[in-house]
Amino acid sequence: MLEKWTIWKPIEIPKGNYEVTNIMQNDKGTLIKLNDGVNKIDVLFEGFVVALRVCDEGSRIKTVMEVQQSQSDRFYFSEWPLYMVENSMFGKWLIDESCGIYADGELEHISIVTANEVIDILTTYQPVISLTKD
Fold first, then answer.
1. Which terminal CB of the chain, N or C, has fewer other CB atoms within 10 Å?
2. Contact indicator for 111, 83 with CB cutoff of 8 Å
């Protein structure tokens, strides 16, 4: 696997078993809500995201297992939801599909991984992330 998945900590978030409770995309942006029963995380992309892919975790088992193996940690995706992906295959696919609209290195691949979903976001800017108590 050429991709490199790294835990991303843009703000201090308590470890927990987060689940996706809502995904909303409209003319104001893309909002992804997570909840672990105690803490709520809002990941808000204000404006247009280049691409959004939402999959059941079982549909991404190959990637999940490869990342866990590369990290020598079968619990790598436990208790933390936010990741940055370098050398993204999703990003490379989009660059190819866009026929040059986006250049290599222009897109960030942010991934949200829970026990039930893997959400991939390709964007040119970082989201606003907020944490509140449930």
1. C
2. yes
**Order of strands across the sheet with 19-26?**
19-26, 29-35, 39-46, 128-133
For residue 63, give the 3-state DSSP assignment.
Answer: helix
Classify 2 in phi/psi space as left (phi over 0), alpha (psi -120 to 50) or beta: alpha
d(CA 84, CA 90): 12
Closest CA to 122 of 97, 82, 85: 85
SS (H, E, C) 19-40: EEEEEEEECCEEEEEEECCCEE
* Backbone dihedral angles phi then psi of residue 28, each to the nearest 5 degrees: -90, -15
Pairing of strands 19-26, 4-7: unpaired
Q: What integer pLDDT is reported at residue 2 of this predicted model?
A: 87
Pick out the chain residues at pLDDT < 70: 1
Closest of 18, 35, 125 to residue 81, by C-alpha? 18
Handedness of CA 86, 81, 13, 127 (dihedral sign): positive
Distance CA 86, CA 52 (A): 17
Residue 109: domain span: 4-133
The sign of the CA dihedral 61, 71, 31, 95 is negative
